[in-house]
Amino acid sequence: MHESGIPWNDPSGDRLRSWINLDREQFYDKRNIAVAAMGFCYPGTVKGADLPPLRECAPLWRPRLLPLLQKVRLTLLVGAYAQRYHLGAAVNRTLGETVRAWRDYPDNVMPLPHPSWRNSAWLKRNPWFETELIPELRRRVSSALR
Fold first, then answer.
1. Are strands 49-50 and 45-46 parallel, antiparallel or unpaired?
2. 3-state helix, strand and coil shares in percent for the chain, rounded to the nearest 5
């Protein structure tokens, strides 16, 4: 993303689009989809992995951005940082617990693990994600785009 300027323009994005059953054209249609990073400050990498978002970025940019997003029907909280920021006290102890509790959150919010290859082991250990959450995620995304 940092090099191309296109968010989710990598294998993680391919996995995310697969989860929500959208192709690249649908996903990048700005009339229907807003991709809002937790911080618009690139934190850099270490050993090929992105560093966590800089602490000052979300408080600086999210309050300015979110009011500009009109008619938001569904918010996908991808990763622990997004979940902690948006769910606050309702977030569980771990990302896995938060994602597993997806039914406890409002229908217009869906917590997801990051679709990075680094989470492949987590996905294998949690088959309910594919069998229970993904079908509902796809239904919600389809409904939100109508």
1. antiparallel
2. 50, 10, 40
**52-75 per-position pLDDT tens digit:** 888 888 889 999 999 999 899 999
pLDDT (tens digit per residue) in 116-134: 998 999 999 999 999 999 9
Instruction: Write the DSSP symbol of residue 4.
Output: T
Distance CA 23, CA 115 (A): 16
Which string of DSSP letters, residue by residue, matches 11-63? HHHHHHHHHHT--HHHHT-TTT-----S-SS---EETTEEPPPPTTHHHHHHH
Three-state secondary-structure class, residue 66? helix
> In residues, how long is the chain?
146
Exposure class string for 67-87: b at 16+ Cβ within 10 A, else e: eeeeeeebbbbbbbbbbbbbb
Q: Is 96 helix (H, G, I), strand (E, B) or coil?
A: helix
